[in-house]
Amino acid sequence: MSGTLTRLEAADFINRSFRPLPRAYGDALVEAAKADDRIVALCADLVPPTETDRFRDELPDRFHNVGIAEANMIGMAGGMARSGEIPFCHSFCAFITKRVLDQVTMQAAYPNLPVKIVGFLPGVATILGVSHQAIEDVAIMRAVPNMAVFEPSGPEYHAAMVKLALDWEGPAYLRMKRPETPPPPFEPQSLQIGKGVLRRDGMDLTVISAGLCVSEALTAAEELAEEGIAASVVDMATLKPIDSDLIVERARATGAVVTAENHSVVGGLGSAVAEVLMDAGIGLPFRRVGVQDRFCEGGTTPYLMKKFGLDSSAIAEAARDVVKRKRQE
């Protein structure tokens, strides 16, 4: 599929695909709104795919479906925020970042307002093709002053995204991915702004990952362990502000780093980690796993992750390379 579906066709496909699945983010947003009447929800005609249907049904006076008009939605949110509300704006990642950057910058970030921007379908993970894929959004939003950028690795962290957004006083971008199949039972996990999570400890290298690539990194670490390579895996759920202390500590402890992200290698997590290492004066074997500065295509998530080198096999291969280089030094 090349991304030729209309928005309504795409929404219908996603509605049918996701209807049976839990809405960990959407439920958490409703519960937060019931506890804080300043919270309002806006949506750009993508209600079920962005998990805002329960908010619409239970808090209709605080829900605004603005239609296919993300730029207007951000402008409205800026006005609401100036009036004391906390607006959560919802669309697909590609539409709510690239299409409305000027509004995001001038109506939310420049006045440092609590506008929370929630995008779904991150990176390559959609059958809907290039028009719906956001492989540049982290790079864009990371460069916007005052903007925080958060990305959960799974549904157990979706409720934490709502809390992170509320804890951040200014504008925040949440890069969300709904499960494509019902997940196994999980306990909600907490996160802190500017803090990564060490998901696995090992002393041969560190894999710093985010979003969908965290589970791939953990799978790669299991594979590497069978070869006698012990890999640390960091879940960098807060992409901005980033956990510089953890990056430096793991780099010095293991002497080799791989980054893995469902995003272009230009300007995303890999670039952020490289900036931290260079600022700290740390030189070491380093590889970035991500989309290699190209456009992708539509397909299933496992197919796309494998084809474009984002899966556990690609991470394991990069890990072997940096460990080999480390041992040669």
In short:
The chain has 329 residues and is α/β, with parallel strands linked by helices. 40% of the residues lie in helices and 18% in strands. The strands form two sheets. The chain has a seven-stranded mixed sheet with strand order 2-1-3-4-6-5-10, with helices on both faces.
Please tell me about this protein's structure:
The protein is of the alpha/beta class and 329 residues long. It has 2 domains: 7-176, 3-Layer(aba) Sandwich (Rossmann fold), CATH 3.40.50.970; 197-328, 3-Layer(aba) Sandwich (Rossmann fold), CATH 3.40.50. Helices cover 40% and strands 18% of the residues. The chain has 13 helices and 12 strands. The chain has a 7-stranded mixed β-sheet, sandwiched between helices. Helix 2 packs parallel to helix 8, helix 4 packs parallel to helix 6 (101-109) and helix 9 (213-225) packs across helix 13. The model has no long low-confidence stretch (mean pLDDT 94).
Structural domains: how many: 2
Summed up, the helix count is 13
| Strand order across the largest sheet | 2-1-3-4-6-5-10
CATH topology of the largest domain: Rossmann fold
What form results from the Cα inertia axes? globular
Question: What's the rounded overall pLDDT mean?
Answer: 94
> What percent of the residues sit in helical stretches (DSSP H or I)?
40-55%
